Amino acid sequence: ARDEKLMEDNGIVLWVRMHDPNIKGFTPYACLGRVSYDKHAPGTRPLEFVLKLLDYDELMKQCSSGKGEEQSFFQRVITA
Q1: Cα(14)–Cα(6) distance, rounded to whole angstroms?
Q2: CA-to-CA separations, 58 to 30, 46, 51, 61, in angstroms, rounded
Q3: Contact of 35 with 14, CB cutoff 8 Å
Q4: Strand 48-53's sheet: what is its strand order?
Q5: How far is the C-alpha of 64 from the C-alpha of 66, rounded, in Å?
Q6: What is the dihedral sign for C-alpha 60, 64, 70, 72?
Q7: Residue 16 forms beta bridges with which residues?
Q8: Could you give the CA distance from residue 60 to residue 51 in angstroms, rounded to a whole number?
Q9: What pLDDT, in 10s, does the model give residues 17-74?
Q10: What's the rounded Cα separation, in Å, for the pair 32 and 5?
C-alpha cells in the first residue's frame, strides 16, 4: 500500500461471517466488497482499526431492491 494506507485501487476485499446461535456455529462467508483504510487506534490491544466500505452505496441499493438472501445478510452485518 502506498504511504502505508489502503487506497481504493489496492483491491482489498472484505469477507465476513456471523455467529448463528440457532445452529451453534457460523454462517458461510459473505463478501462485503472493497475496503480502504479509514483510521486506527494506536496502543489498543488487539489493534483497533476502521475500514471504509467502498461498495456500501451499491450494496444498500441492492438491499432496497430486495435482491436475494445475501442482501439481508449485509443488512444484518451493518446493524450488528
Answers
A1: 13
A2: 15, 31, 17, 5
A3: yes
A4: 13-16, 30-41, 48-53
A5: 5
A6: positive
A7: 30
A8: 17
A9: 888 899 999 988 988 888 988 898 999 999 898 989 898 888 887 777 665 555 467 7
A10: 20
3-state secondary structure 17-47: CCEECCCCEECCCEEEEEEEEEEEECCCCCC
CB 76 within 8 A of CB 17: no
| Measured distance CA(72)–CA(30) in Å, rounded | 11
The answer to whether 35 touches 8, Cβ cutoff 8 Å, is no
pLDDT, residue 15, reads: 92
Please compute Rg for the chain using Cα positions: 15
Q: Which amino acid is at 49?
A: F
What pLDDT score does 24 carry? 93
